[in-house]
From TrEMBL:
Transmembrane region(s): 12-35, 270-293
Domain of life: Bacteria
The protein's name in its UniProt record: histidine kinase
UniProt keyword annotations, A-Z: Kinase, Membrane, Phosphoprotein, Transferase, Transmembrane, Transmembrane helix
Catalysed reactions, as listed in the record: ATP + protein L-histidine = ADP + protein N-phospho-L-histidine
Species: Halarcobacter mediterraneus
NCBIfam families per the UniProt record, alphabetical: sensory_box
């Protein structure tokens, strides 16, 4: 059983749910978008800083390489060259000129505390790395023996010498100090190719100590794992806090430039923003609940008043005072209820009149009408009493309808009980045992709140008897035509027998008759008498009254009909052309009736040829399969059927011949046999035919039979 719910409670819950849900969803989406926007801004700023630092570092390196090229080209011609370069460039602490063996030949430095000509520097990395294949070398950071500070060098080959430029990173470090994070710490760190820290404005002691960070989270979680310019979260060098940043690589020196922000500071600023959004969400939730309660109260009070008024109207109190409700729409609804009540009164009156009219119509129709529910008779009209020769409806009401239906038709009726049907035939049984042939049609209707089946019954017993009489008349008419065909078939053999007998008698009188002549003549007479006997058998098969259903081959029946009509067709110079399918088509039914149909159709063509005086006479018989149906088409070039009567030729007693030539029942009975007995269809239409470059008008009869 369905649980009954309160509409007030449900509306209130839905209103609160959707208002709160909408606010929460909007708030969450807003917070999410703000978070993403904040992160994207940080990413953009960090990437811009990386690009600026990358540009500045590459500018420094390119400048050093250009100075090296200048020294290599001009050193021998200018003895003050080294001094000028060191004094002019703040990024250079000293320049050394080494012999090919690594001994200092010349130098200039800001301070000359620990350097003299003749010192052997052949064991220094920046000297050893220069090989035959390598003309220059950028070193990693190392502790300089000249000024005892962390330094990087650029060594390069000269003509019979090696040049070494010692580089100070003071200006670069000053440049990097411009970039600070939210916590006022510096954003940039630079590491050499081996992971040793080159620049760290926040921890200069790590630079002096040449701290190697290759195993720290900076490398394991970021530089060795992610692609350049890809932000991620990683632990700081001290492992005390999370950092958020990215890196890029300097190709010339394999340096790693790191940009970072304190992730905890970022999250604190975001959390404060989210808290503000949460407070705003809470405020709007409280406001929506307040407004929902107020709105619901007004709506529900109006509903209560509306329910009270409609209940009084439902109880028949139509003079209820209509006070204005809170909402215009509900007032309009209330007025509509009042108007609806007036209309209901009118419709109740009309319904009573319609019910009275239905009952009058129910008993005044010419058809028998039976109302049933689930196969049990509920009511019958007066015509039903007359049809079944009964005096009272009590003999029907409450009984099963199958009590009045022949058992052979029970399955057919059962299959049609659950649907609206087209007319179909059944056999009924009257209480006195008499059988009736009836045409019935059923419709499902709703009457007095019940779903009933209304069945209309028409007595067609007399029509069936007339059809049988028509069939017999058609048979008699066919007999008349068959006698004519027999005359055509026998005329030639009888003439031959008569001629042979007269010839023998004549030869006997003149004494010229011999035994050979007698034998020859007797053989001719025997052959012709056998032909006459066979012809009698063919016609006997046509006229036999066997009503047993059998399976027959369609083309055999067509050939049988043509054999019967052969002499008549030849006599009227009618040429018949047949075209059968390779596949043989069998049908189960009464073969004699089907023969009669074929004969009627061919005779109809023959009569048309004679009536229209057509010179060239052709009949075409073809088999085909169309839309899962077997088609037998018989067409001629006899001039066709006038358009005003083509739709009437299958009606009983309708004929295009003179009254002395036909009864008009041949085509009607052919149609009845194909449609009612063989469950097919017989149709006709006028056609144009092209034969031997000539165009003819003719008629096409199509027999359609269902494929098994």
């Amino acid at each position: 059983m369905t649980k009954v719910k309160s509409i007030k409670k449900e509306i209130f819950q839905v209103l609160i749910f959707f208002s709160i849900s909408l606010i929460i969803v909007v708030g969450i989406l807003t917070a999410w978008n703000l978070y993403n926007s904040k992160i994207e801004i940080i990413k953009h700023n960090q990437n811009q800083v990386l690009k600026q630092v990358d540009k500045e570092v590459n500018k420094l390196l390119i400048n050093i390489e250009k100075i090296a090229q200048y020294i290599a080209s001009n050193y021998d011609r200018n003895n003050l060259l080294l001094k000028n370069i060191v004094e002019i460039n703040n990024n250079i602490s000293s320049v050394l000129i080494l012999s090919e063996e690594g001994v200092i030949k010349d130098f200039h430095a800001i301070s000359n505390l620990n350097i003299y000509k003749g010192f052997d520097y052949s064991n220094k990395v920046y000297f050893r790395k220069l090989t035959d294949n390598l003309n220059s070398y950028w070193s990693n950071v190392f502790l300089s023996s000249i000024d005892e500070e962390p330094t990087i060098s650029y060594s390069f080959k000269m003509e019979k010498s090696i040049g070494v430029i010692m580089i100070r990173l003071t200006e670069l470090s000053d440049f990097l100090q411009r970039f600070k994070s939210q916590d006022n710490s510096h954003m940039i760190r630079i590491f050499d190719g081996s992971g040793v820290m080159i620049i760290n404005p926040d921890a200069k002691h790590l630079v002096l100590q040449r701290y190697n960070a290759s195993s720290s989270p900076v490398f394991t979680q970021l530089i060795n794992k992610e692609k350049p310019f890809t932000q991620t979260i990683f632990k700081s060098l001290s492992l005390k806090s999370n950092q958020f940043g990215a890196y890029t690589k300097i190709k010339k020196t394999s340096w790693s430039i790191l940009v970072r922000d304190n992730h905890n500071i970022i999250m604190k600023s975001l959390i404060s923003l989210l808290v503000s959004i949460g407070l705003i969400i809470f405020f709007f939730i409280a406001l929506s609940i307040f407004l929902s309660i107020r709105l619901s109260k007004n709506i529900f009070s109006s509903f209560d008043k509306l329910q009270t008024i409609t209940s009084k109207i439902a109880d028949g109190h139509y003079n209820v005072e209509l006070n204005d409700l809170h909402y215009k729409e509900l007032n309009n609804l209330l007025k509509s209820f009042n108007k609806m009540q007036v209309e209901i009164d009118k419709r109740e009156d009309n319904l009573e009149k319609s019910l009275h009219s239905f009952k009058s119509l129910f008993n005044s129709t010419m058809e028998s009408i039976v109302l049933t529910k689930n196969g049990k008779i509920v009511d019958v009209n007066d015509i039903t009493l007359k049809l079944f020769n009964t005096e009272s409806k009590k003999e029907f009401i409450g009984k099963q309808m199958f009590d009045f239906i022949e058992e052979d038709y029970h399955d057919l009726v059962k299959s049609n009980l659950i649907k609206n049907t087209q007319p179909y035939e059944v056999e009924l049984i009257r209480p006195d045992g008499k059988r009736l042939q009836a045409l019935v049609q059923g419709k499902i209707i709703e009457f007095e709140g019940k779903e009933l089946r209304l069945t209309a019954v028409i007595d067609i017993t007399e029509l069936k008897q007339k059809d049988q009489l028509l069939f017999q008349q058609s048979k008699m008419a066919s007999m008349g035509e068959m006698i004519g065909n027999i005359a055509h078939q026998w005329r030639q053999p009888l003439n031959t027998i008569s001629t042979c007998a007269s010839g023998i008698k004549f030869e006997k009188e003149f004494g010229v008759l011999n035994n050979d002549r007698i034998v020859e003549t007797m053989d001719i007479i025997v052959d012709n008498t056998q032909f006459l006997s066979k012809t009698i058998d063919d016609f006997r098969n046509f006229f036999k009254s066997d009503k047993n259903s059998e399976k027959f081959l369609i083309k055999d029946i067509v050939d049988q009909a043509l054999k019967i009509l052969n002499a008549s067709l030849k006599n009227y110079d009618i040429e018949v052309s047949k075209k059968y399918l390779d596949e043989e088509f069998y049908y189960e039914g009464l073969s004699n009736e089907f023969v009669q149909v074929i004969i009627n159709l061919i005779n109809n063509s023959k009569d048309a040829f004679i009536s229209n005086k057509v010179a060239d006479r052709f009949i075409f018989i073809t088999e085909s399969i169309e839309n899962n149906k077997f088609i037998l088409e018989i067409k001629d070039n006899a001039g066709g059927i006038p358009s005003e009567i083509v739709d009437k030729i299958f009606e009983p007693y309708f004929t295009t011949k003179h009254k002395s030539q036909g009864t008009g029942i041949g085509l009607y009975m052919s149609h009845q046999i194909i449609v009612d007995h063989m469950h097919g269809n017989l149709s006709v239409k006028n056609i144009n035919m092209h034969i031997d470059s000539k165009t003819y008008i003719g008629a096409s009869f199509k027999i359609e039979l269902p494929l098994e």
